[in-house]
Amino acid sequence: MKGIKTGAASVYPKKDRNLTRWLFVGPAMLVVLCLLVYPLGSTLLYSFTNKTLIKTTYSFKGLENYIKILSDPDFLRAFGTTLVWTFSSLLGQLLVGFTGALALNRINNRITRPIYRICMIIPWAFPSVAIALVWKWMLNGIQGYIPTMLMNLGLSDSMIQFLSDPKLVLPTLVFINIWFGAPMIMVNVYAALQTVPRDQYEAAVIDGANAWQSFIHITVPHIKVVVGLLVVLRTIWVFNNFDIIFMTTAGGPAGRTTTMPIYIYELGWTNKLVGRASAASILLLIFLIAVCLIYFAVITHWEKEDRA
Amino acid sequence: MKKGKRVGDILCNVYLIILAVFAVFPLLWLLVSSFKSSSEMLNNPTKILPIQWTLENFKTVLITLNFTINIRNSVIIAAATTLIAIVISSLAAYGVVRFFPKLGDVMTKVLVTTYMFPSIMLVIPYAMVMAKLGLTNTRIGLVLVYLSFSVPYAVWMLVGFFKTVPIGIEEAARIDGANKLQVFVRVVLPLVAPGIVSTAIYVFINAWNEYLYSMILMSSSDKTTISVAVKTLEGADILNWGSLMAACAIVVVPSIIFFCFIQSKLAGGLSDGAVK
After folding, report:
1. Which of B5, B117, B213 would you mutate first to test chain A, the one with the most A CBs within 10 A?
2. pLDDT-derived band of residue B31, with 50, 70 and 90 as boundaries?
3. Peptide bond preceding A253: is omega within 30 degrees of 0, i.e. cis?
4. Residue A47 Cα to chain centre, angstroms
5. Into which CATH architecture does domain B61-266 fall?
6. Within a domain: residue A196?
7. In chain B, at which end, N or C, are there fewer CB atoms within 10 A of the end residue's CB?
8. pTM of the entire structure?
9. Residue A199 burial (CB < 10 Å; 0-12/13-18/19+)?
10. pLDDT digits over A169-192, tens only?
11. For residue A53, which residues of chain B lie inside 8 Å, CB to CB?
């Protein structure tokens, strides 16, 4: 792929780029306008109003929703939970995925490699409803496989209530998320590792570099941009994830796993306070954009370094 | 030196085997549970293979609980989403690559940015608009909503594939008098067919797996899709874990099979420069 030049050579000359070119991109632009720009706009608008799902009329209230949200202890708690959930899930996924990819790259066996790959595809392909229900079944405090097994092995005295014990529930969800996300990181990092030219390692060995030095000076510079992009995509996904938490604990017990999306759902759908929920959505989006801008600044800096 | 290398290889293999077992076990447990009777699950909670294999759970789910209707809904909705999304997205991706040398970059960036929009933010406006249009509880409504995540992703994936087509072939066809659309359909599409198929499969899986929009927009049980139907089963009285796992198996198995087809295309998508 690297060899293909994009840009001027692959584009039609100017005289051919007349009005008909808009016919190609028009439908997609319509989709973006109606299904993404419009809802964003209406959320922004409603965030300044007292709009509810019950009444059709509403009036403007200025920043009232934002003030109420930012002084709501439940919002602050949900925000904190989201940060813990996102950060620890990502850290775990990266740690497991990265080490797994390095191990896979090291053995590089033609027979076992595809088997491992297929195994790694499985969690990745799990629909969220199946992730939630299969883990609920395995962790179930009455006859679940994992608590029973831990008791039979003498590792616990009673059936551990992974999903209803307030102390265990968030770590348990993070564990499930690592199970789901680490394989995707592993497969992608492995693919990136394959693009590192082998002869550079050989040259490093001749120069007397040890494994750690080659890792830091050859592997890391080659794959950091890809890994960086992967981290951006995963951060967004985990941060916004609604399904897994909603279907395993629905934010419980006692709000212990209420992340921002669950908080917004309860506000907007359960309590029908669209205005308030919209303000919370906008705050969520602003935070996410800020995080992504920082990430992209770092990645662009790396890309410049690469070119230099 | 050589001995050290071999020990390292063994350690790596052990680690990978642990990871593989960890990755696969939930699927295995889901599948074996779906073939067990409820008494067996109660008496032997940690025995892996069923003593007696039974299809009872699948019968309950498909016949008694009328799940076939939800499967049909999901297939129709996912297929329609895929078809529409692929037509719209391949036109757009081709257009961006060939006709918009400068603006195209901005367009794909805007699309990628929409990935940041939380679905929980979008779903309430969708619910209100669909109610106004009278499209709540209709397949058309849900398909339209599914385009919101399918089209951006498909365009992003397809731009990478269209960039690999050399323009020379198209110029030859243009000289022979074909117009832009003819060139696109007859010359370019066949060349990127494998890429389009992978993209289509990916869009299909995502629509098949979707939960939140369907839960909010499809309120009646005979109209809803399979993930929502499975989740609602959880609260039903007649249900045991075996039947629930049978229902999950029906959702998860097609998804895994399709994923295996496109796995080589997915991995490496990032490093192949699709985003660059």
Report:
1. B117
2. very high
3. yes
4. 25
5. Orthogonal Bundle (1.10)
6. yes
7. N
8. 0.91
9. exposed
10. 999 999 999 999 999 999 889 988
11. 124, 127-128
